[in-house]
Amino acid sequence: MLNVTDLTKTYASTEGPVDVLRAVSLGVTGGESVALTGESGSGKSTLLHLIGGLDRPDSGEIRFFGEEITALGDAARARLRRDRVGLVFQQFNLVPSLTVSQNIALQARLARRADAGWIAELTDRLGLTGLEARYPEQLSGGQQQRVAIGRTLANRPGLILADEPTGNLDEDTGDAVLALMLELAETTGAALIMATHSQRLARRFARRIHIRRGRLEAA
Amino acid sequence: MPAFLTILSHWRRHPGQLATLILGLALATALWSGVQAINEEARQSYARAAGMLGANGYERLQMPGGGPVPLADYSALRRAGWQVSPVIRGELEADGETWRVMGVEPLTAPPDMLPNGGLQAGIDPGAFLGGPGQAFVADGAEIDPNGQFGLEFIPHPDIAPGLIVTDIGVAARLLDQTDPSFLILLPDQPAGLPDLASVTDLVRVEPQGGEDLSRLTDSFHLNLTAFGFLSFAVGLFIVHATIGLAFEQRRPVFRTLRAIGLPLSRLILVLLAEVTLLALLAGGLGVALGYLVAAALLPDVAGTLRNLYGAEIDGTLAFRPLWAGVGLGIALVGAWLSAAQALWQVARMPLLAPAQPRAWAIASARSTRLQAVAGVLLLAASGAAALVGTGLVMGFLCLGALLLGAALLLPGALSLALRGIGARLRGPLAEWVIADTRQQLPGLSLALMALLLALAANIGVSTMVGSFRLTFLGWLDQRLVAELYVTAADNEEAAEIRAFLAPLVDATLPIANAETRIGGQPVFVYGVVDHATYRDHWPLLETTPAVWDRVATGQVLLVNEQMARAQELSLGDGVDLAPGLSLPVGGVYSDYGNPTGQAIMSLDLLERHFAPVDQSRSAVRVDPEQRQDVIAALDAAFALPEGAVVDQQSVKQASIRVFEQTFRVTGALNILTLGVATFALLASLMTLSSMRLPQVAPLWALGQTRARLARIEVMKTLALVVLTGAVALPVGLALAWVLLAVVNVEAFGWRLPMQVFPLDWLRLLGLALLTSTLAAAYPAVGLLRTPPAHLLKVFSNER
Q1: Domains in chain A and their CATH numbers?
Q2: Strand ranges, E, within chain A
């Protein structure tokens, strides 16, 4: 489903160029769950951003269901994210002026495939029933992250990219959120790549990849 | 649609911010479109006047010194073959209102001097000439409800307000005047006519054209437009600040929307649609408010134009769809302009930019420097325009550059001032207050710039009006020396009155004048006798030695400032007054409030060269104690009509009333602009207050009470307002100088000495502080009521 080949990315810094990713290659099949571990600054987030079409690599290619995405324009990459990719961030990135139910349905509605029954089921399974009319600021961190996961899954993406989704949560809440994400990814058949620096959380994934100084290593 | 609704959902959660934006744009639109409505109403009236006062569009024949044309001259011209048509014109008092009456001879008058093309087209000759007679008045005019004139009044859309157009016979009856006021010289004259000068002594006067009126009032309307534009600009500061803050607050949302698949181009379109929708809502409200503002101000404007220029403007406002459309368009353009910078930032915002709102203080440091450079350049341009520029437009450009330059310099000046104050303060809290105020400055700078503009405009305009008022009142005291002014029916009666008064009073001075054209411009020439009244009291701006002696002996003439400026006359320059009469300028006198040129010469010369001269008015010098006795004696001897004898106080009061009315509109706009600026401050403070928690919460955690922090917030705002006021003072005084020394001279033809009014400044600063306290109090009370749990969230990871 996803094939990444010889991906490189360099950022400019005051101390000269920094090679964040060096010839990274990776393949992920449908329904597979992958933990991407590494130190801070090792390139985890950059790799997820490139796969999600949020940024462009300096070289290399990314094939998603056979389609090369690195050469796509802004609109086409936006369409890819809208229709086939789900993103979960550490900061939740909910829309503060929309209610829980509106936030969950947002991406699916943008993609014009909102399924009210599926959204209701998701809301229930995420433990958000009864909180639909609340605004993000009225929720705890764990609840906000569950809304963010709901927003991603409501669209039934082929690939979920999660960047430290439990980084802002306490251990118990983080565990619960991760369990839910793995379960729902399996239910929908989506592949899941999650960046984390926690080996404890990574152990719950079927496949673990370690990234060090921009290069992938098998964990 | 989901993206549009998501963007709009921000306003549902921030209704105060939405109200600020809508009201800010509505106020800006209201003041602008209100002024435009007034101008448009005036223009329509001028157009009607130009269309209907057809007499102005033709050459005229009139008496050299004014006064009725003897019928003998009319007959002589007709006999000689000249095609002329008599017109009787005058004023009529009816139910406390003054009407201008124009009586035309319908059989000989050009068709466009009457409605419906005259007798040749739409007017029924039987009804117009026979029976009780007909008179045309403006649509909606209410006249003679009791039928005392015995006329049928017909409303007509082509008639200017305050005008009655009727048959010459009816006008003669209404005005009690048999001879024509002037004769219209028809454009098509037969060939082989004798020379006009061989037939009559009447003088030929060029067509005046209705555009004269509009040209005369141009400066007044430009003045209003400038104020309307200033208010609009101040209003746009609010809109710019509110839209900017709303965009800033939603940066994370924009990023999220793009991350979940909304293309950048679509996001920009959605934001543009949002701004357009809000602008249409606010514009609609603004146009409605503008109509109310215009309706409220129009009676005063109409009074001003009537008193200053003799221009008749209907006191009621018509609703014009085009005006409403333009008002909406202005709101749209203003909103788009205000949002342009924010939209540009969104378009350039990298998708992976930090999600937290940008640190304003850091980002704005560079733009503050750029603004300061632009401000200095604009101030230099303003100075150059003031020193070397000419013309009214250049005057207003000079004003615009001065205000904009000062506004752009303000944030830098405030930052420097705060740094200077900070260097002198000791103590951690004081240091925090200064540092925090400097950090808050970029968020408030637009509102403070708006306040600066409003305060400077207020100081400038009130200094101008105050200077004008003091000078005008002093000038009235000097100029209106005579205790009584008497108007007789004609020169003969005036001579009788002067003979009658001679043993009763100290002096009776004839007010003799004639109207002529010098250098192509209308000039009223006055003749004076040699008397101490003039020597001791007449205010001269420039003079030559023994000038009154030389005026009395016919060696020199005096000209008013307007004429000296318009015709570029200096002392000693010769003026051709009439064939065979040229006199050098011996002095220049101030003549405030008079739009036309004027000259003074000896009465003997005036009578010799401009005969017959109107001498029906007289100025009477008498012991003030005996004033009433003299009036009673005049009444008993001459049975003069009401208003024929007026005392000095009445004339002064009438002049002061005209003066006050002239500046009432300016005063009202001034207050409205200050109100808008205060609203801008409230808007910015309210919007910023929601982003202030991270700055304030650490102080609370360190042991400061919420009450103290709230007090500090108010004091900081007031300190910024005081500093802004300190910058506004020199800017306002510079503005006043430009208004008095540049704009006034260009617009009215006279220059006023500038005077300063420190008490007014203190009053204005007090008002600004009071309104700013109210503006700062609202968010401060909000902070006071913030629950500790809310403050604690600042320290929580969950934020």
Answers
A1: 2-218 (3.40.50.300)
A2: 2-11, 18-28, 33-37, 59-64, 67-68, 85-88, 159-163, 191-196, 207-212, 215-218
